[in-house]
Specification:
With about 450 residues, the protein is an alpha/beta fold. Helix content is about 50%, strand content about 15%. Helix 2 runs parallel beside helix 3, helix 10 crosses helix 12 and helix 17 crosses helix 18. The longest helix has about 30 residues.
Length: about 450
């Protein structure tokens, strides 16, 4: 879409020349000879940018700018002023003008300023659009569930979001802890500021320290330049520390200092950095047990646990499974161009009675697989993969209808899921616990579509 520019100039020749220059550059140009005409033109068709002279009869540029600041503050304005009247241009900048240029006009400079501001305005509009999309995505109404537990959870999250309190989200893997963290941030006063995420479990201690606090050039081998840490990136916004229960005691003490005083030093640096960051942490670990073993600091726990939020596992909210299933079918219908219209009562009953060790994440992956492989418009029992055996809920046995191979695969997949849960979904630890090498383990994860 072409950029629309409104040129406001009382000198006819200058107005026509400016219009010609911008039309050649591909702009749609509207013209006005004073502020009154400009306001009329804006009401009919809002421009993307306004270029206005200061001294004009009727309504001058400063009066026009004052009017624009009340109703059209979102439209960027560049003021044109004669040499020797720079004070007026400075005053215009204080009133909200984005830039100014002096006469006699240098058209290369003028078009450069217009292009720069146009690009900046496009970025601002794009950012506002994306922020709006994120707010819609993480609106409370998009957290699916009608059980009492979910209603109580949403009420708590609504109350917490508008504060700056530190939040500790607890729950099993796959329950939606990150979704809750997103909802808190994008419904808070910090929504227009950064939301920075760190998974504490996937980084070694030395890497995590650099990731969180940054480092200076030469701090260690490979530190070839200064690096800004996540705390600095999140300044003014929110930092989400996922898997907080996996950090070392040394990192815990460093984190405690930031929570207490809002300050830290980069790795290898001496300058103390100050930040204003809201902390949301999450874990699937039993922190009380970790404190008893001396693996987690009590003082840090109390700092994090200002507002505790517990996300229930899916097996404790089975009534919500039907709503989640409908949501995921609709989602994957759109993604894969499918037209699945319904799921049979028996198939839904089986899905509702399964325990889902991987919680909502497992259910989502399961429905995606069903939708991809389904060639019709109805999901029935025979469309359910072996992970949800039709007979296991009633009699406690594996489903043998598919033969020995399918029953063995079903058992193996359930065993892997159980081992993953017991080892905090750490693939290296799980492979060791199952006494198989990592390549074999990764092949089985791929085979059974375990994310």
């Amino acid at each position: 879409m072409k950029t629309r520019i409104l040129v406001v100039e009382d000198e006819h020749d200058t107005l026509e020349l400016m219009a010609e220059v911008f039309e050649k550059k591909g702009y749609i140009v509207e013209k006005a000879s004073n502020g009154i005409e400009a306001l009329r033109a804006i009401k009919v068709n809002e421009p993307d940018i306004i270029l206005s002279d200061i001294f004009m009869p009727g309504m001058n540029g400063m009066e026009l700018l004052d009017n624009l600041s009340k109703e059209y503050a979102h439209i960027p304005v560049i003021m044109v002023t004669a040499y020797g009247t720079i004070d007026n241009a400075v005053e215009a900048m204080k009133l909200g003008a984005k830039d100014y240029i002096t006469k006699p006009l240098r058209f290369e400079e003028l078009t450069a300023k217009v292009e720069r501001i146009t690009q900046l305005s496009s970025l601002i509009k794009e950012n506002e659009f994306l922020l709006n999309k994120l707010q819609q995505k993480y609106d409370f109404t998009n957290i699916i569930g009608k059980t009492a537990k979910i209603k109580d959870l949403l009420e708590l999250v609504r109350d917490v979001a508008v504060t700056n309190a530190t939040v500790l989200i607890r729950g099993e893997s796959g329950t939606g802890k990150e979704l809750i963290a997103n909802a808190i941030h994008y419904n808070s006063q910090r929504m227009k500021r950064p939301f920075i995420k760190v998974n504490c479990a996937v980084l070694a201690e030395s890497l995590l320290e650099s990731e969180l606090f940054g480092h200076v050039k030469g701090a260690f081998t490979g530190a070839i330049k200064d690096k800004v840490g996540r705390f600095e990136l999140a300044n003014g916004g929110t930092l989400f520390l996922d898997e907080i229960g996996d950090i070392s005691l040394k990192m815990q003490s460093q984190l405690l200092r930031v929570l207490q005083y809002g300050e830290f030093e980069r790795v290898g640096g001496t300058e103390t950095m100050k930040v204003d960051v809201r902390i949301i942490a999450a874990t699937n670990k039993n922190l009380e047990e970790a404190m008893e073993k001396g693996e987690f600091r009590q003082d840090l726990f109390y700092r994090l646990n200002v507002i505790p939020i517990t996300v229930p596992p899916l097996r404790e909210r089975r009534e919500d499974i039907q709503y989640l299933v409908s949501h995921f079918i609709e989602k994957f219908n759109k993604i894969y161009g499918k037209n699945i219209r319904e799921i049979t009562p028996k198939a839904m009953s089986i899905l509702k009675n399964y325990d889902y060790p991987g919680n909502i994440r497992e259910l989502e992956n399961l429905i995606e697989r069903i939708v991809v492989l389904n060639r019709g418009e109805v999901i029935d029992v025979n469309n359910l993969p072996a992970i949800v055996p039709s007979g296991s809920q009633e009699n406690g046995h594996l489903n043998t209808e598919g033969g020995l191979t399918q029953a063995v695969e079903e058992f193996e997949r359930k065993l892997i899921l159980q081992a993953l849960e017991e080892n905090g979904y750490n693939k290296v630890q799980t492979a060791k616990a199952l006494k198989i090498n990592r390549s074999t383990f990764n092949s089985k994860l791929k085979k059974y579509n375990i994310n």
